[in-house]
């Protein structure tokens, strides 16, 4: 918890706004993210009309506008690079002053969210798909068997470059990092329903149509028996080349398994992506030394997934579809 002098301009404005709304100091401190004493001192200082003592700021409003423009030009620069550009612009300030001014403006250094890049045609197809599925009930979604492949790495520490953004800018296109599909690593095929997860399948080679059909034969069919028994179900997979191959389509027709039509490049619509994210977050503190230890960690973590988590994720499908319609087919927060 910071002292009163460490409160940013944004935090002070938030405190003033919440105070006017009649919120208690305890509630304000929790929402702002500072100590209750800092809130109390700031409110008392404002009530008495006292100003902060100390040296006058060395930067003007014009300097601050220049700094904000520099940050917004490339949000993935570090403080040192931003400070250098600000100095070149004629501002005399230290690196720490540069950092403080950025914080005063509301900028925080965050790990960027990853979203696929969608072209116009893909957005149109996503929107049409969402409008077609908007009236599906929870019971209908419970009959869908979701699936996906995902990579797991031995090291989870490399998050890539961070991004400077303000509160509410997490979905700003300039603050997003584009995803790369299917990087080479330990690959796993997984499935889930609204009730339980299916068995894991570790993929030893590149997934082509033949390999994928073996996975379906030896893992998907047993998983379907486990998840649905003898009841009818709909299988979901994305449009990866192995999935959309003619021989794979023929395999599904021969086995009498209906497929859920799926828009291209749409991991945000698939609840199993969130389930994989949960597993990877639970594995963050694990430090396997080799591939076999990594597989054992994945198996142990996968076994901890509860039916409640599966049900909650599948129940989110109507909200995902509504979000896709509201975004007119663009990538959503999911």
UniProtKB/TrEMBL annotation:
PANTHER family: TC1-LIKE TRANSPOSASE DDE DOMAIN-CONTAINING PROTEIN (PTHR23022:SF119), TRANSPOSABLE ELEMENT-RELATED (PTHR23022). NCBIfam families: transpos_IS630. This is Transposase. One of its GO terms (biological process) is DNA transposition. GO terms for molecular function: DNA binding. It comes from the Eukaryota. InterPro entries: Homeodomain-like_sf (IPR009057), RNaseH_sf (IPR036397), Tc1-like_DDE_dom (IPR038717), Transpos_IS630-like (IPR047655), Transposase_5 (IPR052338), Transposase_Tc1-like (IPR002492), WH-like_DNA-bd_sf (IPR036388). Residues 64-132 form the Transposase Tc1-like domain. Residues 144-295 form the Tc1-like transposase DDE domain. The lineage of its organism: Eukaryota, Metazoa, Chordata, Craniata, Vertebrata. It holds the Pfam family DDE_3.
């Amino acid at each position: 918890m910071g002292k009163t002098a460490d409160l940013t301009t944004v935090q002070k404005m938030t405190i003033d706004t919440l105070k006017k709304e009649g919120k208690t100091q305890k509630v304000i401190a929790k929402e702002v993210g500072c100590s209750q004493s800092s809130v109390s001192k700031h409110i008392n200082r404002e009530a008495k009309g006292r100003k902060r003592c100390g040296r006058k700021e060395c930067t003007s409003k014009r300097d601050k506008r220049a700094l904000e423009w520099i940050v917004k030009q490339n949000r993935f620069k570090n403080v040192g690079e931003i400070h250098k550009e600000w100095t070149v612009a004629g501002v005399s300030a230290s690196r720490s002053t540069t950092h403080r001014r950025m914080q005063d403006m509301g900028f925080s250094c965050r790990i960027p969210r990853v979203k696929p890049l969608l072209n116009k045609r893909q957005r149109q197809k996503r929107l049409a798909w969402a409008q077609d599925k908007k009236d599906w009930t929870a019971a209908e979604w419970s009959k869908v068997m979701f699936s996906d492949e995902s990579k797991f790495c031995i090291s989870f520490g490399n998050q890539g470059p961070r991004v400077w953004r303000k509160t509410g800018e997490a979905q700003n296109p300039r603050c997003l990092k584009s995803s790369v599909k299917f990087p080479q690593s330990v690959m796993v095929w997984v499935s889930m329903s609204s009730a339980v997860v299916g068995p894991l399948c570790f993929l030893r080679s590149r997934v082509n149509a033949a390999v994928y059909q073996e996975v379906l034969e030896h893992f998907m069919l047993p998983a379907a028996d486990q998840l649905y028994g003898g009841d009818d179900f709909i299988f979901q997979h994305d449009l990866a080349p192995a999935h959309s191959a003619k021989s794979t389509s023929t395999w599904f027709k021969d086995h009498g398994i209906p497929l859920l039509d799926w828009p291209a490049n749409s991991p945000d619509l698939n609840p199993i992506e969130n389930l994989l994210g949960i597993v990877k977050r639970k594995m963050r503190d694990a430090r396997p030394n080799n591939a076999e230890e990594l597989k054992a960690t994945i198996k142990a973590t996968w076994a901890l997934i509860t039916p409640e988590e599966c049900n909650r994720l599948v129940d989110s499908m109507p909200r995902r579809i509504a979000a896709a319609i509201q975004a007119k087919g663009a990538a959503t927060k999911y």
